[in-house]
Design a protein that fits this description.
Layout: H1 6-16, E1 26-28, H2 32-42, E2 46-48, H3 51-56, E3 62-65, H4 72-81, E4 85-89, H5 96-109, E5 113-116, H6 123-134, E6 140-148, H7 160-163, H8 167-183, E7 189-197, E8 208-215, E9 220-226, E10 234-241, E11 245-249, E12 258-260, E13 277-279, H9 285-288, H10 291-304, H11 312-331, E14 335-336, E15 355-358, E16 361-368, E17 374-380, E18 386-390
Parallel strand pairs: 1-2, 3-4, 4-5, 6-9
Antiparallel strand pairs: 6-10, 7-8, 7-14, 8-9, 10-11, 12-13, 15-16, 16-17, 17-18
The structure holds nicotinamide-adenine-dinucleotide.
Amino acid sequence: MLGGGFIGRFYAESLQGQRSRDKVVAIYARREETAQKFAADYGCTFQSTDMEAVIAHPDVTLVCIALPNNLHAPAVALCAKHKKNVVCTKPLGRTAAEALTMMQQVEEAGIFGGYLEDLCYSPKFLKALETVKSGSLGRILWAKSRETHPGPHSDWFWDKEQAGGGCMLDLGCHCVEIARNFIGKDVRPVEVMCWAATQVKPIDAEDHAIALVKYENGAIGQFEVSWTFRGGMDLRDEVMGTEGTIWINNFLRTGFEMFTTGKAGDYVAEKAESDAGWLFPVGDEVNDLGYNHMFTDMFRAVEEGRDAAETFYDGYVVNAILDAAYKSAETKQWEPVNLPVWRGQEGLTQASGAVEYDADHYLIKEEMTHYGKKKLILKEKASGKIIEREV
Ligand SMILES: NC(=O)c1ccc[n+]([C@@H]2O[C@H](COP(=O)([O-])OP(=O)(O)OC[C@H]3O[C@@H](n4cnc5c(N)ncnc54)[C@H](O)[C@@H]3O)[C@@H](O)[C@H]2O)c1
């Protein structure tokens, strides 16, 4: 494990929290005391403040990168050098160029590269994706994802150079990949329109952003992200298709509501702003945020010699979409998504939505009236005229 902070510990809880056969054997942290505490808490046999020593350690078969964003690329380069399989937290890079280099290093070294996009492994997301893939929602037209909270927990996130951006890179990376999954990962993202602003915090990066991502088949992705939202962590997805709709609430208002005067001062959930009053705890955060299913897929993929559902290639595509979003926020124009490497479908066009009613008409809408008749709204093919008919 590289990094003994917030996400390193979450990952370790997932890896060793149940009766897992996987083991965190070595920990790298910047500070000796962090490495020592992590090693004691999770039973690591090797600890160091030297990153390369941990990667090269003979007991290490796979490296998990849980470091600040500016250290992902140097850590991946060392994994490639020592030919160690690697899984990396989000965002993969600070830019698509950085992510592309990381992807190429991994592919040239012939090592496994898994992208730790946990929110594409949450139980609700996995069920929703299965439903979408089975066709229950028809053709996907719109996928929206929202992640907002009151801001991150460590200094480096707030520094544009180390983090590579603000809330858009930090949280938008989740939202973009969620929408890509629902719309189809092989459908090319074409262009992005984005508004981003620094509304509250005294930082150089954005603390609030909203964007639209246009896909080649006519579908639209949308994300809403903020570091200035009050009330905890809001994680919601919406999918709209020609045959159905899905709404997912992953964190707040999940059906678990609790009131306390705050007597015990307990931990409630990630980014919860209060431990008193009406609260929204999360039953099993490690599982509900997707970490368990994510590591299961990653490690099975290594054993089976296949790609995981989320790869370095996916991380690179996400970075490319976010690069376009940053550009659009500046130019106030739709900006193209620049993908020098694209492995999906080419030349898709928007499918026609027209439903045939009979030889002369298209069906626009049918509805049961309160007076017991079915009303049809039809379009005459020849004249283009729109008519009503009751049956
Ligand atoms: N849901 C998620 O997938 C999720 C959630 C939170 C964070 N993350 C990602 O995990 C990575 C680490 O975030 P975190 O929340 O664990 O951060 P953190 O500040 O809590 O921990 C970072 C750790 O990295 C190590 N480190 C080494 N060099 C460092 C340096 N120069 N400055 C600071 N720390 C240094 C330290 O051990 C430190 O504890 C980031 O890329 C972040 O985007 C992912």
